[in-house]
Design goal:
Blueprint (H helix, E strand, L loop, with lengths): L1 H5 L19 E9 L18 H17 L3 E5 L5 E2 L2 E2 L1 H12 L3 E4 L7 H4 L1 H20 L7 E2 L10 H13 L3 E2 L8 H14 L2 H30 L5 E6 L2 H16 L3 E2 L2 H4 L19 H8 L15 H7 L7
Parallel strand pairs: 1-2, 1-8, 1-9, 2-5, 6-7
Antiparallel strand pairs: 3-4
Helix pairs in contact: 2-9, 7-8, 7-12, 8-9
Length: 327
Amino acid sequence: MLAATLARAATPTAATTATATPPDRRIAITFDDLPWSSLEPRTPLPAQGTVPPRIAAASARLLQALTDTGTPAIGFVNSARLLVDGKIQSDRVAMLDAWLDAGLALGNHTATHVDLHLVGVPAYQHDILACDGVLRPLLAARGLQPRWFRHPYLRTGRTLADKAAMDAFLAEHDYRIAPVTITDSDWIWAAAYAKALDSGDTAAQAKLRAQYVPYLLRMVNYFEHRSIKLLGYALPQVMLLHANALNADTYPEFVAGLRGRGYRFVDIDEAMGDPAYRRADAFTSALGVSWIHRWALAAGWSWNFYGGEPTSPHWVKDLAGVPADAE
């Protein structure tokens, strides 16, 4: 579907072979939709203003997994997820405090996970500032300040003028865009897992956990090889995951799998120190694609470059209740 949308023929201009030395495999892990992807201000709760016990337990498991594996990470906050009836809830803020207590970082992901392409630049900037108004004091209490911003849906502007306006706005407020080079559909798997948890289907839960980690490893492998094809070396990757129960329950196995392939886990600052991240991003499509895709398009590669990207199995999509062409 991605190829059909944007296909165009061109001659590649970047290096296409890796060096003879082993790749320096590094990866920065990022989590979107903190404090938790299924905490919504408009969602009625069993006890208003409290975090449901299953979510609290899953959040604790995710933080424990991050601590036990010794992997740095940054979580991107939607401040509206801290609200019930327009009021900030202390137990939801405590979930972010626990993230900071674990030595992890936090960034801005807008207040309401708004779509830039739908609402336009002024409303989008207002939503960023709404999140900043909550996030900045929380970090200031620890002598920190927010520095990273993640675009919801990875939609970064419908026009070059919108992108330029956003770049200037973010710079004015001391934010830097956090790109994503390894995209995946963990949200589909997480939706399936949530349904299996709701129904008590332990067999489906186990099957999802068993197949999810190999799926993630295939995605990492795919984008690693695409970065080598485009840049001539293994890019320090930035991977997008979400704060959800499936990641909480599989993260140690995922880390073990990556370490088995020689990956080192680094923070986003180290990954972004690579010169590839200084490449201009002129991508204006609504598709939430990897920055490797964007750079390849700018360099003149055809969409054949992207052949073979892993997809989620149909049985997972069926269980999640998403369309067959969703990814």
